[in-house]
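Data deposition worksheet. Section B asks for the primary sequence of the deposited chain exactly as it was used as input, without tags or linkers unless they were present during the calculation. Section C holds the resulting structure in token form. Section D is free text for depositor observations; keep each observation to a single sentence. Incomplete worksheets are returned to the depositor.
Section A, Depositor: J.P.
Section B:
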Amino acid sequence: MASRQPVASDFPAQLNTSIIPPPGQRPINVLLLLHGLGDTNIPFTNLAKQLSLPETTCITIQAPFPLPFDLGGFHWGDDILFDSSQGSMDHDTGFGKSSRMLREDIIEKTLIQKCGYKARNILFFGFGQGGMAAIATASSLKVELGGIVSIGGPVPSGFWNAQDAVAKNPTPLIVLGGSSASLITQSALTLLKKSFQTVEYTKWPRSGDGMPTNRDEMLPIMKFFARRLQSRSGVPEGSVEIG
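Section C:
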């Protein structure tokens, strides 16, 4: 079955999604964008429009669980835990429910079965806890997806065991983070490399795991997309190869 453009009615009604099709093209790829802890999918909808990736439909998905105490925003975790030492919410609180939703409701039942996409042509872009949800989903699938871009999102606890070192996940992964105050520690990077066959790491020369702030910080992500996105039309006339 040839792939077709997903529409809102393809997805479960309880999910909040925004669909950004490629202008004037029939999509062959799907990029799923997952926001960070305490956010909504609105900023990533704007990001998807700015990316304007060829032959790629972008779908921003809002995390299914609202934050408590009228804090606003949503989260991907099975629970909410406050880290008293940091004075903030813990990112790693289990991803069983959200990874099941992403795997079954989004990827398997909708994109593959209804819309005809191959798993190889489905990619994730996740920030913070959204990156962790993407990694957890890929870990539970055990098939090759198009790839994962994870900014400040390590492997969640509970999604790696000794068996993964024997049969590593085939989905390529690029992880990015700051040179300090980052969730991408050396131990987190070691665990990623134990879990996935192909792991690229970009360390930005700044503190923290915020979103890219300039062209140089965005360039590794765009190079990753250039390698992993499929195309029916080949290289457009006048385009410039990066790297």
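Section D:
The two ends are 34 Å apart (CA to CA).
The CA atoms of residues 62 and 231 lie 28 Å apart.
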